[in-house]
Amino acid sequence: MYILGIPYELDQVTEELAMTWNHARKSELEAVKTSSNLDMVKQPEHFKRETKWKQWKESLITYLHSKIGHANLLPLANKVFNTVHDQLVECAILHGTEYNINNGLVYDLLQSLTLNGPAWSWINMYQHVRDGRKAWKSLIHYYRRGLNNACQKSVK
């Protein structure tokens, strides 16, 4: 709950609740190991062609969803999610030590995949602070705007 930024009282954290979450976490990790999902999701190729933006974006999102972040802690919350991963994605807080570490790792990945390609200028703006979230949002904004303009031109 701390990682998610959800206020809580100590009496909410019971041994039974902790055991339930711990069991769910272990089951999910075993399912991933059994099906070798981590081996199946490969890091995307370097981004070199703007015409391949949509495919590259989806492959990067899939890759990032397959990775476990720095704060591999188990949240405790009232809302029901299919998996702990779904809950972490839905409720992620955007501050703190764990966020800063993961944000830098995302920046490093984006930098390595876009270096010397058409998207590099949008990533390079955030190099001095290693801000992966802002770099990603900058890419999304640029390519969304570019695709919308291309669609409008083709309609005319």
Can you describe this structure?
The protein is built from seven helices and no strands. It is an all-alpha fold. It has one domain (10-155). Helix 5 packs across helix 7 (132-155). The protein has helices spanning 15-35, 37-40, 53-65, 84-91, 97-114, 120-124, 132-155.
Quick structural summary:
This protein is mainly α.
Pick out its properties.
156 residues; mainly alpha; 60% helix
Range of helix content: 55-70%
What structural class is derived from the secondary structure elements?
A: mainly alpha
Q: Please, how many helices?
A: 7
SSE pattern, N- to C-terminal = HHHHHHH
- Number of spatially distinct domains: 1
Biggest sheet features: none
Arithmetic mean of pLDDT: 76
Shape: elongated
| Poorly predicted runs | 72-78
Topology:
Blueprint: H1 15-35, H2 37-40, H3 53-65, H4 84-91, H5 97-114, H6 120-124, H7 132-155
Helix pairs in contact: 5-7
